């Protein structure tokens, strides 16, 4: 029975990625493609979210993943590529890869940005050999409601995550591990 559920879950994930083929290219994006996507995502996020704008003004660096594709049925996976910006300039390219297991079903595409508020948090991104969310510096996730009411006087943590531009439907609970790794472009 367990193997049947595992097979169904893997089939659903494969089917979801095939169906979302136009949401993410089959090949890795070029540096120029990532740059354009990050520019568009930053503009969208900063114009629609005053909390994100406040964070960006004080952040040491901002790591933006414009298009993360997530799909799952019991087992889930997500992937996307992005760029680290420091003082308006790209200083590196990264990918975000995650797996999850739990009560979940659906497919979605979304973007997220990590605002590194201290030089030590930013150093940890590269010195860790693959930044794993949930380990290392503290991360605070600002949902849409919290991020809108966020002010610069409430900044107290090392890293803030802001999600934006969600499309699709993903429902359920799950345990997730996410790893961010520097890539060459």
Descriptive overview:
With 185 residues, this protein is an alpha+beta fold. It has one domain. Helix content is 32%, strand content 45%. It is built from 5 helices and 6 strands, in the order H-H-H-E-E-H-E-E-H-E-E. Strands 1, 2, 3, 4, 5 and 6 form a 6-stranded mixed beta sheet that branches. Helix 5 links the parallel strand 4 and strand 5. The longest helix is centred in the N-terminal third of the chain and has 18 residues. It is globular. The chain starts with a helix and ends with a strand. The relative contact order is 0.21. About 18% of the residues have low confidence.
What labels describe this entry?
185 residues; six-stranded mixed sheet; alpha+beta; 32% helix; 5 helices; 45% strand
Which regions contain 5 or more consecutive residues with pLDDT less than 50? 6-26, 144-156
C-alpha termini separation = 44 Å
Largest sheet: 6 strands, mixed
- Average pLDDT, to the nearest integer? 76
As a whole number of angstroms, the C-alpha radius of gyration is 17 Å
Total count of helical runs of at least 4 residues: 5
- Number of individual domains: 1
Portion in beta strands? 35-45%
Tell me how many strands there are. 6
Structural class: alpha+beta
Instruction: State the order of secondary-structure elements, H for helix, E for strand.
Output: HHHEEHEEHEE
Report the helical percentage: 25-40%
Shape descriptor reads: globular
